[in-house]
């Protein structure tokens, strides 16, 4: 098991209250569809952006009560119904499309600030939409949700070097690479990682773990089953971080995977979460 952001929020699981399963599933299918348009297949970046714009236009047409593109009509009909039923904030869904469009060209990032801005649009909307469905709007809960979602997105980056780098995709920032003396272009070209890369990754893992632990108290703000779902997500993310840390720097070349014993550890850690700790 690895961490993938869109597989780590509750998709109509048994822990999710039945009344919230339809909107959560609708959000998931919308995000998954757009993500696949931006990332799957052999289309060029320009073609991917055009497809995402067509999806956006079709979605907006559905919101106006006009016919949607047949490719996405069923998915969009469900999304619009749940949007209207639950007053889902439109800007959060728009942010997701903006982030997927940005991803089409495999951009390189100069700074963590730029990377965090991408996470703000690609990951944080999911958590905020879930909090909206639970009627939780206080600023502290939103900040904690953003921290968890950003951490999950970053974990996805740090576990996927072996998948992303051969495709020309890299989320190591120029500033981080320069600070640790890492040649990002050489790493993308297949250079075997050494001490500098290991130090860079250790730094990134510390940053990401700090974000996850900053957001973890949110599990105590969410009611019932949703709080337990989030405990598993938080502890699963921390376990993947620990696995990457143990493999460093080999995780640049081999994707980390969780095993059976890890699941037991995640469950035990989730049960033991206290208000003063993660």
UniProtKB/TrEMBL annotation:
InterPro entries hit by this protein: HSQ_synthase_HpnC (IPR017827), Isoprenoid_synthase_dom_sf (IPR008949), Squ/phyt_synthse (IPR002060), Trans_IPPS_bact-type (IPR044843), Trans_IPPS_HH (IPR033904)
Superkingdom of the organism of origin: Bacteria
Keyword Transferase applies: yes
Gene Ontology MF terms in the entry: geranylgeranyl diphosphate synthase activity; squalene synthase [NAD(P)H] activity
This protein's UniProt keywords: Transferase
Enzyme class, spelled out: transferase
UniProt keyword annotation of Transferase present: yes
Matching Gene3D superfamilies: Farnesyl Diphosphate Synthase
Pfam family, one: SQS_PSY
GO terms of biological process kind: terpenoid biosynthetic process
Record-listed E.C. numbers: 2.5.1.21
NCBIfam families: HpnC
Protein name stated in the entry: Squalene synthase HpnC
